Amino acid sequence: MMRKVLPFALLLTTVTLFGQQKGTEENNEKKQDTEETTDTIRLPEQDFFLLMNSDDVEIANNVPIHQIIKDSVVYALLDDPGAAMIDSLWQKELFQSSLYDGLQDSLVNSEYNEVVFDELPTDTLKMRLEKLNAKTPFNVEYNPILENVIKSYLKRNKKGLERLMSLSDYYFPMFEQKLDKYNIPLEVKYLAIVESALNPRARSRVGATGLWQFMFATGKMHGLDVSSYVDERMDPMMSTEAAAQYLSTLYRVFEDWDLVLASYNSGPGNVSKAIRRSGGSNNYWNLRPYLPRETAGYVPAFLATMYIFEYAEEHGFQPERPATTYFETDTIHTKKLLTFDQISEVTGVEKELLQFLNPSYKLDIIPYIADEDYSLRLPRNRSGFFVNNEEAIYQYAQAKLEEREKPLPQLVDTDSRIRYRVKNGDYLGRIAERYGVGVSQIKRWNNLRSNNLRVGQRLTIYPRKVVASSSSSSSSSSSPKFYTVKKGDSLWSISKKFPGVTVQKIKDLNNMRGSSLKPGMKLKLSEG
């Protein structure tokens, strides 16, 4: 507990120096030795959190930090999970990729066999689709394929859909604002569910990333930069703006929203080839046999998702509703380098919640670069708390940075190219993992036709993650940390046992797509 209190003691000292005249400091210190200072607001824990979580932003934002970080209130601030702002649902949903993996598998592997679901008679479905078709520019007319997809979702994935509905309450207001700005049908918001299952850190097997699944080159075209610290494709606001721009461009080309969806998934080139092969048809359902398999399932998945969300009440869905939306958070433009650990310590917002609100920071670090504009997103009534004590927080962060035994990694722009010399024991998978890229990308960059490498061969690589320096023998010889799964373990419980280890990190290090564990399984917890 002392380790948690010490950082706040340092911050308290810094803020006090800001708020008092130098001539009175000695008197105050002597007075504190004998009695309580008279200008300190003593808040019981319950009153403190009522105040901090109050809808009265003026009150919540103007409680000085030196007046609340006192005695037992310190412990309350450290332990507060932010549940008054975003309910416990989010703790379960943070970086869950199982929804994304399942949805992607259904797009690629669905056989569209007949599904029996007596709760939805065909006549009822036809009537509802007709109503939906009348109010949307998408072609939502009934066909057996669409019926089977809808019934399959309702029969096999109701729980997952309820989780997506909960997440949609958080993201959809922001999506709708951006889509309306570009005069795009608001129903396109459902596209993000098909693309990423509303997981901002979703990454496909070919490298498409974020809520809207931008490939590296397409993201660059729309101003989404990637560096060792930041992947702007994972930023919800920036990626949604870029997606709206791209969709607007596609509509100017195809003038049909079904074809826009198909081209968003497979590329305009594949859609134009399908048009030629179909004899010039511009109807998606006529083009469908000539499109890639994933795209053939893409538009039906989108239309099925739209139907289920629009008729959720009729089908008895009862999703938990979050206590806030994207617009009930706020951003602060940061002026110094900050880590999520530091932010969590001084604001009381849990690190996992910071990761959820700020998914574009790959290393849980907000870098500072003079000509770049990075921001921190916080729950609304914590942002004022941060701003009111900004300088003291930066001083605290700088002090913590100077205490680090190991320096933070340098920022590397992914436009940077490196030349890698193949060593004995190297193979493409190991090199790809080291630099955060795909095997297929290394092969494409170097015109390789096979996976064979020879010692001494030079490879061109565009790295997407920081690689630890090998300048010291001690760092290069460090071995990875492993954990043996015990009965009752979950990824969440394991991540809590090791500082700096998150659920997503465990999944990334072990190439896990789902979350299932078996006793005796060995999990890698750190890089070697």
Automatic annotation (TrEMBL):
InterPro entries referenced in this protein's UniProt entry, alphabetically: LysM (IPR018392), LysM_dom_sf (IPR036779), Lysozyme-like_dom_sf (IPR023346), Transglyc_AS (IPR000189), Transglycosylase_SLT_dom_1 (IPR008258)
UniProt xrefs under Pfam families: LysM, SLT
Family matches, as Gene3D superfamilies: 1.10.530.10, LysM domain (3.10.350.10)
Domain LysM: start-end pairs: 418-461, 481-525
Source organism superkingdom: Bacteria
Signal sequence interval, chain numbering: none
SUPFAM superfamilies: LysM domain, Lysozyme-like
Family per record: Belongs to the transglycosylase Slt family.
PANTHER family: LYSM DOMAIN-CONTAINING GPI-ANCHORED PROTEIN 2, MEMBRANE-BOUND LYTIC MUREIN TRANSGLYCOSYLASE D
Name of the featured protein: LysM peptidoglycan-binding domain-containing protein
Protein's organism: Salinimicrobium gaetbulicola
